[in-house]
Amino acid sequence: IREKFFTNLCVDYEVSSLPEETTQEELLRLIDKQNNDDSIDGIMVQLPLPDHMYEDVVIESISPNKDIEGLSPGNVHAWTKSTPNLVPATALGVLALLKHYKVPLQGKHVVIVGRSMIVGKPVAHLFLKEHATGTICHSRSKPLERYTLDADILVAAVGRAHLIKKGMVKKGVVIVDVGVNFEDGKLMGDTDFDDLKEDASLISPVPGGSGPATVCMLASNLFLAFELKHAKGDEELEKYLREYYANYEATA
């Protein structure tokens, strides 16, 4: 889906498919080469990595200015300080979906099930910026329904099929399912979609919900990285660009 989307946007891209036995040092050399290639504006590494590699080391090696997934330490520091920057695309996609469907956020109680640096933690910061009240749970929060039943908006992002079942949410809740699971060869999220759609006012399907939104926000981050590079240190222009791309409705 990413390749087709970028092709439709007339974005040149290159997929480096490496064998599983590639060493971490070889991968780091490739990333370093791309960091120093001025014709490349964005870099992303498909996770998870093989067991013999350290994800933190690999992600840290990506230039923050080209890190369109928003996971490098420099970008993490920026979004924890509420500074508009290259924010994790999946988290941005959650907000873009809600904005697109005109879901009110201010004053709402948002329960996020999942505490990863890709979704849970960054999306919590984004909701705080929208003046929502956030609660972060995870698969070991017991009993989980104690928290999910109080949610006006529920974001499921653990990666465990059937985690959110009927009876665990209140009537009228808005659900964004970010989970990715395979069961009997079928892709599914963290929620029992068919059972919950009667109670939810809105619920995103898997596939077809947060996935395409994430790809859109990857493109948004890529365009922001490109424009920041060409801003050439103009602080006022950089501030304007970051604020513009932080407008999820515009970028979606």
3D structure, described in words:
The chain has 252 residues and is of the alpha/beta class. 40% of the residues lie in helices and 10% in strands. It is built from eleven helices and seven strands. It has helices at 2-8, 24-35, 55-60, 73-80, 89-100, 120-129, 145-148, 193-196, 210-231, 235-245, 248-251; strands at 109-113, 133-137, 153-156, 174-177, 181-183, 186-188, 202-203. The strands form two sheets. It has a five-stranded parallel sheet, with helices on one face. The chain is globular. The relative contact order is 0.13.
> Which fold does the CATH topology of the largest domain refer to?
Rossmann fold
SSE pattern: HHHHHEHEHEEEEHEHHH
Number of helices: 11
Helix content range: 25-40%
Structural class, please?
A: alpha/beta
pLDDT averaged residue by residue: 90
In spatial order, strands of the major sheet run 2-1-3-4-7
For the sheet with most strands, the description reads: 5 strands, parallel
List unreliable stretches of 5+ residues.
none
Q: Specify the overall morphology.
A: globular
Distance between the termini: 16 Å
CATH superfamily descriptor of the largest domain: NAD(P)-binding Rossmann-like Domain
